[in-house]
Amino acid sequence: MTYTDSYAAPITDPLFDGDSGSFPLALRQLLVRLLRGPYLDGSTDAAAWQLLIDTQDTLGAYFSEIFLVLRLDMDRKIAMLAPVDIEQAHTAPIAPRRPLKRDETLLALRLRLVLEQQAGTGVGAVISRAGMHEVLSEHRSATDRDDKRFAESCDAAIARLGSLRLLTNTELADEFRISPALAMALPISSIQDIPRYLAAIDANESVLNLSQAEPDDAETSEQTDPLVQE
Q1: Which of 126, 160, 135 is nearest to 229 (CA)?
Q2: Less crowded by CB within 10 Å, the N or C end of the chain?
Q3: pLDDT, tens only, 51-83
Q4: Other C-beta atoms lying within 10 Å of the C-beta of residue 227
């Protein structure tokens, strides 16, 4: 029996009363992790990544049953789920969530550039809180003179990307690792397009339409078109 077969083979003992499933515990746990999201990082969990690779066909078939597709970045070892585009009722297993606000989108795009600059260097992309404040200050309105509110807005944007695990903590206070998952979370066809997106956001134009999520009515004035979902 191969490594893959050992995980894909039906279980012989139920895991709980009424268990009618066939997947072993490890594979079910992997399914739950992927469904909970926002992504699986194989660089921090080699065992889970290997299991995913070994059972990719089995996982793909399961997710197809609930209108999801498993997306993999083999170079960065990132896996995440995405809903399929199908015009039928009751085919959205993942409910649309609040899209990124303006500052969150600006920060995500700028971090995407940093991530690209570090690609292939063998060194993880990191940035400090102060560095992200400085990045957002470049997009600050000339009429905005409320420093306290601006700093709070910057910290809120950092916290939101952190909640999506696009920023993760390092051993140093106020220094963050830019997750390689950001490259998949922002599905931009060409990195050269990012400056155009940034300029359009600064000009309050709507050019980003990379997701099907709808913003909450109460927050529409503060949001760009959605990029990343929780």
Answers
A1: 160
A2: N
A3: 999 999 999 999 999 999 999 999 889 999 988
A4: 22
First to last CA, the chain: 39
Instruction: For 123-143, write each residue's pLDDT tens digit.
Output: 788 999 999 999 999 999 888
User: Beta-strand (E) ranges in the chain?
Assistant: 40-41, 68-73, 78-83, 126-128, 167-169, 175-178
What percent of the chain is modeled with pLDDT above 90?
A: 47
Distance in angstroms (rounded) separating the CA atoms of residues 202 and 195: 11
CA diameter of the chain: 68
Nearest to 59 by CA among 85, 86, 83, 23: 23
Radius of gyration of the chain (CA): 20
Is residue 48 within 8 Å of 42, Cβ to Cβ? yes
Does residue 35 sit in helix, strand or coil?
A: helix
Q: C-alpha angle 139/134/173, rounded to 5°? A: 140
List the one residue out of 78, 32, 35 whose CA is nearest residue 53: 78
Position 80, amino acid: M
Tokens matching residue 163: 């909640």
The answer for residues whose C-beta is within 8 angstroms of residue 21's C-beta and 6 or more apart is 11, 15, 28
pTM, 2 dp: 0.70
CB 198 within 8 A of CB 139: yes
